[in-house]
Amino acid sequence: MVEVATPFGITRRRRSALTADGGERMAPRNGVPASEAADLSTAAAAADVRSALAALRRLAHGRGRWAVDVVTTPGGVLDQEGVSAEVVRSQALFSLALLATEGRSGRWGGTAGDGGDGDGGGAGAAGAGAGAYTPADEAVVLAALRRALTVDASPTVRSSAAAALGHLADTDSAGQLMGVAVDDVDWLVRMSAAVALGTMGGAGAAAAGDVVGMLVSQLNGRDPSTVGGAALEVAALLSSLGQLGDARALPAVLRWVATKDDLVRLQVAEVLAAFPLTDEVRAALGVLLNDEGHGVAAAARMSLERGGGVWRLSEEDGGGGGDCFTCRGDACASTTAVVAPAIWPCPRTGAVRRPSCLVARVGLRAAV
Questions:
Q1: Same domain, 139 and 177
Q2: Which of 67, 93, 81 is nearest to 161 (CA)?
Q3: Angle, CA of 306, 203 and 271, to the nearest 5°
Q4: N or C: more exposed end of the chain, with fewer CB within 10 A?
């Protein structure tokens, strides 16, 4: 696999999936030699957006301080103005993050291969020669990302800076990200900062203090009955709390089980897998198992299985034998059982049933 910087993030691709010539231009096996610095610097500052993006994608594999300098030089790429320059600045930030990633892995010194799918070579002399990645190089990269996070006028670019810091798991930036997650005027930036904090996990929380408390406060400041256009931001807050897995967040997560927004309920169903399968988590998943929102029931089932729950026919409904049974009206209203959708695999046999009235009444019990 090889990492490629784009204006929207850093993605992992199989080198074999890239076209021969284009792949080598985008992510050269042996890095980019410093002799290309002048040409790439000119191309990155070009008015033609496509040329600038191509240069910055290639620059991400420069494996030397010269590549960092091309991006961070005052008055250069990160200081370009105009709507079309926003995508270029975002690309530049993710290219910086990938430069740091390769530097941390030892590739600047020409000692590491690109690994992965068996068709990558070692990092040869073309990418070496600038010396190993140093704390000074790291400081320049992080300073540029942190500056963009708070100073850039474009919400798109600030969001990219937050994502890049999350990719690098820069825990020293956790406090700054917390401030942005609360105070930035744009929802996209707040969302990206929250996601970055979740990506850092416990290390970020330890560095910045009560990250969980901040995220819970932000989540509790939203109304589940009127989520409206804030659904993506709410989903991001829920996702980050799930990644942190702190029990203090559970009450805030459970508030959203009954929200009308399908996306948020889907996120709740997935996030509950991060918490112990207590009675209240089990009850919430039981509600979501019957949710008609796209993918919600399936996500709840997966969370239940991850938490150690199992699917069994309740003993009082013939769990010791037999098959799916016919619903008899109010009999399905029992609070001790879950009524599955009409199209559902039998929990005992796995057979899929599609009659109008056949359901599986399932007792959710701890695995034994």
A1: no
A2: 93
A3: 25
A4: C
269 and 196 in a common domain: yes
Q: Would you tell me how many other CB atoms lie within 10 Å of the CB of residue 323?
A: 13
User: For residues 14-34, b (16+ Cβ closer than 10 Å) or e, as one string?
Assistant: ebeebeeeebeebbbbbbbbb
How many domains, in total, are found in the chain?
Answer: 3
Are residues 72 and 62 in contact, defined by beta-carbon separation less than 8 angstroms? no
> pTM here?
0.76
Q: What is the mean pLDDT of each run of 10 residues along the chain (368 residues)?
A: 87 72 63 88 88 91 90 88 84 95 83 41 40 90 96 95 95 92 95 93 64 93 89 94 91 96 95 92 92 91 72 37 35 36 43 34 31
Domain around 174: 169-307
Domain boundary among 307, 326, 344: 307
Do residues 243 and 296 both lie within one domain? yes
| Enclosing H/E stretch for 190 | helix 187-200
